[in-house]
Design brief:
Blueprint lengths: L17 E3 L2 E3 L4 E5 L6 H13 L4 E3 L17 H14 L3 E4 L6 H4 L5 E4 L7 H8 L5 E4 L6 H13 L5 E5 L17 H8 L4 E3 L1 H5 L2 H13 L4 E5 L17 H19 L2
Parallel strand pairs: 3-4, 3-10, 4-5, 5-6, 6-7, 7-8, 8-9
Antiparallel strand pairs: 1-2
Length: 270
Amino acid sequence: MSKDLRLISKEKEKKTIIKIADLKIGEDFIVIAGPCAVENERQTIETAIAVKEAGANMLRGGAFKPRTSPYAFQGLGLKGLKILEKAKQETGLPIVTEVIDSRDVSWISEYADVLQIGARNMQNFSLLKEVGKTDKPVLLKRGMYSTLKEWLSCAEYILSEGNPNVILCERGIRTFETYTRNTLDLSMVPAVKECTHLPVLVDPSHGTGKKSLIGPMSLAAIAAGSDGLIVEVHNNPEVALSDKEQQFNPAEFKAYMEKVLKLSEIMKQL
Ligand code: PEP
Ligand code: MN
């Protein structure tokens, strides 16, 4: 790795372990689950309880949604964050939520346990610098057109501002393939581990865009050495305001988790 990636490079440190409540990311296998977007209190709390019961370790949910169309549901903003706060009180699950604007970082940090930088904002350098000034763990998704080096340079931005707690997340890239929403590039899991000391998660929901492919790709991600998964679950996906096709319902998630947890146990013995 080049000198430009000096802080995230493996030569600098062996392994970064990020502590959130009683979780150790980079050491324990973790599953982050929850809706694409926070839509209302009932939807979020019901989903949070279901994912907790199935064994998820953290709750995801967007209060600010970066949408392709300006007319699509943009998220509930502050109201959504307050709903996430309530879901955390109900379940004890730490919250992962996206920040899309550098002006929002400090106040969203009061609600979030992990700040997510989405694929579309991976190279939003002012946003990266701002989250780098906080002490909140940052989940940095890979941009859909980004090389490994570009992605890692964005992690370097965050570390260079003083925040060492970066979790990388492979979520698929754009290719000529149209059957899947993105092409989930699982080779990035061992590649990230080869180059850096940072933990890496996989998002098979956005990575495939198809419910039927999420289970198999999750097992493949675990076999590739992923430190965990981030998966979309909705209490009633048929009426979801975003990403309908890729959100598990609670029963589907429960069945999915049984396999995921089994394989992650087997991986510990290897
Ligand atoms: C998300 O996780 O809610 C999301 C929008 O994902 P991505 O940035 O990977 O598209
Ligand atoms: Mn989504």
